[in-house]
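Listing S7. Sequence submitted for prediction.
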Amino acid sequence: MIATKRWMPLLLAGALTVTTFGGQPEPVRRTAELTAGDLTAGALATRYAANRDAAAGSELAGDERQLLDFDPHGDGLVTEVFGDLAGAERIAVVVPGSDTELDTFDRPGEKPHASPAGGARAVYAQARRVTPDARIAVIAWLGYDAPDTLSVAVANDRRARAGAGELRRLIAGLRGTGAAVSLLCHSYGSVVCGHAVRRQPVAALVVFGSPGLPFGSADDLGDTPVWATRGSADWIRRVPHVRIGALGWSLGLGADPVSPGFGARVFDSGAAGHSDYLRPGSESLRRITQIAITGDLVDGRDVR
């Protein structure tokens, strides 16, 4: 969910009264399973070059792009790396929400940080700023068919469940290098992450602007720490945090991760709006990046 939609809570609340769902996800174009051998410097250089060739003529063309995956079919799938993935000890994966496709993967303009590539770029720049010697790579991952904000599909988790399998495959490959992998999940992307980490644990699950998580409490993930934040100006707070379903269908996205009873490690994002969490210079970016680098927030006052 990239742009602030003041009317979105009304759409989702209205969707909770319907019984016809539709919005079936497209079949996911599966990518090759990553192995440790695929993540050496030489193998990555070859892979990046091949995907740059595939992206020629698109807005993602350019000699500096490190495209781990690229598929222009349909709405498009793309995964981009910032930093040295081969040498990374920590890897942060940015997972975007609805209204995300190839054309909106990296958008210049007033809020470049609101796009997956722009947000990942901001996290990487912040990490290098505060810890220049940190061996960290940040990945912008669009490996699923994200729903449109103006659709019933955004009010259920079908597309999230379809995308979670692909995200698990990515996590498994990255963890094979020995690096600590964290997920930084925005809006509907947090639903994708929630399904993925139930079968593929990570060093940290960080959700911001989440409409709900598909499990009852942070304790359900065992040793995976769950961090959550929501800015006071984020309209997502008005979305009903419910999930109902039976016989293979569902409506609603789950529990509110910033609620006291959920048990997440909640931290402050000030007056952040829905697309502001990775804005350069913001407290939310500083805190999200700190968790990605260290797995914790050093300043205990950040957690409430």
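Caption to Listing S7: primary sequence and predicted structure tokens for the chain studied. The first strand starts at residue 67 and ends at 71. The helical segments are 8-15, 41-54, 116-130, 158-175, 188-197, 283-294.
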